[in-house]
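stage 2 :: seqdesign
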């Protein structure tokens, strides 16, 4: 798997570097290294190159240039019948996190979920107890089952109010434990 990921990265880096050379403005060693850079598992040499890049390069300008080069070579390769090679490399790298993916997204070659504004499902886990309490309060207050369990209207109302207040009390308790 790592070999196919490495070869997919190398394919993209080589295609973009070749396009830069074709345009008469080849990428230097640092620029090429940054195409495949990923903080996860980066060697000391790669981290040094990244620090040099941060210090000596305008990242916005670099990203814009690489996105333009990527779009240009992608369009040329697709027209030449090499789309399958790109698709295979992009599929292999779909779950990888490295710098070039940012520029491929800017170029419109790959799409990620970062712009879809998907909800954070961990938030739903936080709401489940509150939703359960509200549902129980509604059941106690408004259903025949609630009136059979709590025949006294005042008691039923008190239990419903307590169930509605329970999520707030639980939140305060969690806050005290965390603090």
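stage 2 :: out
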């Amino acid at each position: 798997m790592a070999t196919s990921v490495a070869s997919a990265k190398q394919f993209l880096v080589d295609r973009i570097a070749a396009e830069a050379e074709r345009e008469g403005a080849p990428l230097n060693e640092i620029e090429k290294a940054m195409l495949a850079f990923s903080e996860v598992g980066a060697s000391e040499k790669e981290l040094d190159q990244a620090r040099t890049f941060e210090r000596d390069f305008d990242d916005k300008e670099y990203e814009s240039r690489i996105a333009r080069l990527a779009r240009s070579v992608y369009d040329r390769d697709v027209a030449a019948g090499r789309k399958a090679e790109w698709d295979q490399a992009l599929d292999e790298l779909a779950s990888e996190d490295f710098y070039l993916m940012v520029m491929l997204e800017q170029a419109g070659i790959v799409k990620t979920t970062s712009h879809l504004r998907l909800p954070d499902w961990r938030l739903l886990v936080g709401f489940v107890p509150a939703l359960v309490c509200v549902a129980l309060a509604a059941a106690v207050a408004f259903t025949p089952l609630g009136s059979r369990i709590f025949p006294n209207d005042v008691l039923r109302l008190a239990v419903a109010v307590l169930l509605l207040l329970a999520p707030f009390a639980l939140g305060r308790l969690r806050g005290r434990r965390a603090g």
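stage 3 :: structure notes
- The two ends are 44 Å apart (CA to CA).
- The chain has a mean pLDDT of 85.
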